Amino acid sequence: TTTGAARCSSGLLWAPGYDETSWDVDYRGQDDSVWTNAATGLTTNSYTIDGLEDATQYDFRVSFYCNVNDYYFSTVSTTTLCVPKTLPYVEDFEGISSSTVATDNYGVMPPCWDYTLTGTATYTTGTYRPGVYYGTNYAASGSYALRLGGVGVFALPEFSAPLDSLRIQFSDTITSAYYGLVVGALEGGLFVPIDTVELALSVRNQIELSFKNYPGNSHTIAFMNYYSGSSTYYYSYHYID
Asked: Taking the chain, what is the end-to-end CA distance rounded to the nearest angstrom?
């Protein structure tokens, strides 16, 4: 798969299995029951489908007639890459379920978000993994927020605009005064801190931060959560919305 300005393309290549000389190509979304025909009667064993949604799982089917009565096809599935997001970008985490994005052992991550947990093995599994969380007490709007669990770095999707032209607004609810949060950027795969957020306990903290003085070339905003107490805990729960 390759990315474009707003959509994705998927390039298919296959090897003839019998003595066939032409093929049909169809595709469908993960939740679709009906196939869409992309090409009929191809005489070459490759084809590119344009205009697909990014970060979306598709099934692709290549078929041919071996003779008048026999019909064969081969189906593969893949998820298209993430396209850099245009502005304005809003994510309220509503409507995200296991049928729309892949689950990671515990929580469901929104499309094109990513994370790296830095704690011990105990704090990188199960309930310490991040995921979309149902709870009206924590959501700034609607019923869902993104819960950060084990300490680590949590990255938003890449943006088409550089960070020094961006401003972020979000809410953060914490359940312990020891849960801290730093807002920064991913630069070459490394977290670059910008500002440590001051958070009050058990309220929806409203945060606004400008990246206008950011000196790097990053297009990706990220959060780093940490535990500030004296005990060695590798979790720090934040409910981001």
From this structure: 30
Distances (CA, A) of 202 to 111, 172, 182, 236: 28, 9, 18, 14
β-pairing, 2-3 vs 8-13, is antiparallel
pLDDT for res 66: 72
Only one residue has tokens 């929806």, namely 204
> What gap in Å lies between CA 93 and CA 141, rounded to an integer?
9
Residue 59 three-state SS: strand
Q: Per-residue b/e over 173-187, b at no fewer than 16 CB within 10 Å?
A: bbeeeebbbbbbbbb
Alpha-carbon distance of 156 to 211, in angstroms, equals 14
- Single pTM value for the model: 0.80
Q: Coil, strand or helix: which one is 53? A: coil
Distance CA 3, CA 112 (A): 13
Exposure b/e, 4-28, CB count within 10 A at least 16 = b: eeeebebebeeeeeeeeeebbbbbb
Regions of the chain short of the pLDDT cut 50: 1-6, 102, 105
Across 62-93, b (16+ Cβ under 10 Å) vs e yields bbbeeeeeeeeeeeeeebbbbbbbeeeeebbb
C-alpha distances (whole Å) from 214 to each of 129, 194, 195, 221 are: 29, 8, 11, 11
**Per-residue pLDDT, 115:** 94
Contact 160, 229 (CB under 8 A): no
